[in-house]
Design goal:
Blueprint lengths: L18 H23 L8 E3 L27 H4 L4 E3 L18 H9 L16 H4 L10 E4 L2 E4 L2 E4 L2 E4 L15 H21 L38
Antiparallel strand pairs: 1-2, 3-4, 4-5, 5-6
């Protein structure tokens, strides 16, 4: 959850059973509690939506990193451990308490969702990723999310995940150990087609990064020299396969 270098104040340093990482987590938890208490004390808790989550899984840094158990992988990978994180939505009096949603969503969904809640809209002159997940947050019957694109090399729909040519059923194989591609060719073809369409959409609608003159790179690539992604490539380090 916290970024390196890890830090904790004297009040928390050396106090947890998990070293520097545990100290940082405990201080983070403590101060989130302070923020929620402040909202209540100011009488604005019922007017405030708080979303608590992370943008990726833990670092692979031993004692100074977290764990994604029971999922496989770490930050910079498109294994479940590199991408799947919990999220907490807190809005007293609006969001039902003590509820759990198993349907996956993505951080990019927050843009459309918050735009809806504030009565705003999203630009129509460009492609805006993400979905409005307010029905999902509120537990409306039948609320579902569309396909989840981890990057340009992995897609999930329902419990099925296609990752660089291998197929996994996350419902009974969250660690992604059993490749079921050979036994389920129709599912592979369907997900591969959707992933290819997503690749094409990204290429067609990419905008320059960092201002005019910057070279746009496909989302999810850690290798800036890779202009194309091979959805069948066996790449485990988070970089892009090159066609």
């Amino acid at each position: 959850m916290p970024h390196v270098p890890l830090f904790s104040s004297p009040e928390f340093s050396g106090k947890s059973a998990r070293g520097k990482y545990g100290d940082a987590i405990e201080e983070l938890d403590h101060n989130v509690g302070r923020l929620l208490d402040a909202l209540k004390q100011q009488g604005i808790a019922e007017k405030t939506l708080v979303v608590y989550s992370s943008d990726n899984g833990p670092w692979d840094k031993g004692a100074d990193g977290g764990t994604a158990y029971p999922f496989r992988g770490y930050k910079f990978s498109n294994w479940e451990g590199g991408m799947r994180v919990p999220a907490i939505f807190w809005w007293p009096g609006t969001i039902p308490a003590n509820q759990v949603r198993d349907e996956p969503a993505i951080v990019l969904d927050l843009y459309r969702t918050i735009a809806r809640l504030t009565g705003g809209g999203v630009p129509t002159d460009r492609v805006i990723d993400g979905e409005d997940i307010w029905p999902l947050v509120m537990g409306e019957p039948g609320a579902k999310h569309g396909p989840i694109y981890y990057d340009l090399g992995a897609i999930r729909e329902g419990n099925w995940k296609l990752r660089e040519g291998a197929l996994y059923n996350l419902a009974n194989d969250p660690h992604e150990d059993n490749n079921l591609a050979v036994a389920n060719p129709a599912i592979v073809d369907d997900l591969r087609g959707k992933l290819q369409a997503f690749q094409n959409d990204v290429k067609q609608n990419s905008r320059p990064l960092g201002g005019a003159g910057s070279e746009a790179q496909p989302s999810g690539c850690t290798n800036p020299a890779a202009p194309n992604y091979d959805i069948n490539a066996k790449v485990d380090d988070g970089s892009c396969g090159v066609l």
